[in-house]
Amino acid sequence: MISSRYHLDGLVKMAKRQLLLLSSSNVHGHEYLEYAAKDICELLTLNNVSTVLFVPYALSNHEEYLKKVEQPFRRWGFQVESIHNQNPLEAVKQAEAIFIGGGNTFRLLKTLYDLNLVEAINERVLKNGIPYIGSSAGTNVATRSIHTTNDMPIVYPPSFDSLNLVPFNINPHYQDPDDGSKHKGETREERIMQYLEEKDSSHVLGLREGATLSVNGNTAVLKGLIGARLFIKGQKPREIDVGSDLSYLLKE
């Protein structure tokens, strides 16, 4: 168990763009959100957050999803309120911090558009500087677009453009090619490279399970348990180790 009230000497509060973008909430060998608990608690404690606004729209059963999310946050000393039990736009305007969980990215983004929340969340995070935590689908929608999600398009949002909290794309749950596999379908790397062939494509950060991108102002650092893979148009994919400075991606 991790307390949300531990000593924070040496940490400096940033006023703008405070993000934790997780590849997944569920990592093998860890409980729900556990692998990122220290980073989550530091971010929320640093900003004096007592209540987190949860956005459950990536799954259909919002109440069950809320129950799952409440458990770890309560252990850490934070309350959770779900946006589906409130006026959504007012809830975003009053939020101390926002957590958007995983599920289907297309369903999530469509609902954000349907409820006029895309611009509202963007403004609260980039202009007002409230913390944003995303996991899986919640990480997908935090980026420039959802073109590099792994999910099936079970519904159709009016645009693939998303919250644009960072000016590049992320592929959560990134999996490396398995040379020993008998499966001959396209690898994740091949699909991302196909996306980069498009004229208006952006850089793609492939977050393996257990990887987290931390963005604080104009600084971005890879955190978590494992490295990532970075894809840039016209270049060979490169390996990114935990602790690497990725701030240059924010200048795209």
Give the helices and strands, then pairings:
Blueprint: E1 18-22, H1 37-46, E2 51-55, H2 62-75, E3 79-82, H3 88-94, E4 98-100, H4 105-114, H5 118-126, E5 132-135, H6 137-140, E6 169-172, H7 188-196, E7 204-207, E8 211-216, E9 219-224, E10 228-231, E11 238-240
Parallel strand pairs: 1-5, 2-3, 2-4, 4-5, 6-7
Antiparallel strand pairs: 1-8, 7-10, 8-9, 10-11
Supply database-style keywords.
alpha/beta; Rossmann fold
Task: Give structural notes.
With 252 residues, the chain is an alpha/beta fold. It has one domain (18-178, 208-226, 241-251): Rossmann fold. The protein contains seven helices and eleven strands. A seven-stranded mixed sheet has the order 3-2-4-5-1-8-9. Strands 6-7-10-11 form a four-stranded mixed sheet.
Report the CATH C-level class.
Answer: Alpha Beta
Envelope shape? globular
Task: Estimate the strand proportion.
Answer: 15-25%
Largest sheet: 7 strands, mixed
For the biggest β-sheet, the strand order reads 3-2-4-5-1-8-9
CATH level-3 fold name: Rossmann fold
Number of domains: 1
Low-confidence stretches: 1-15
Summarize, please:
Belongs to the peptidase S51 family. This protein has a single domain (18-178, 208-226, 241-251), classed as 3-Layer(aba) Sandwich (Rossmann fold), CATH 3.40.50.880.
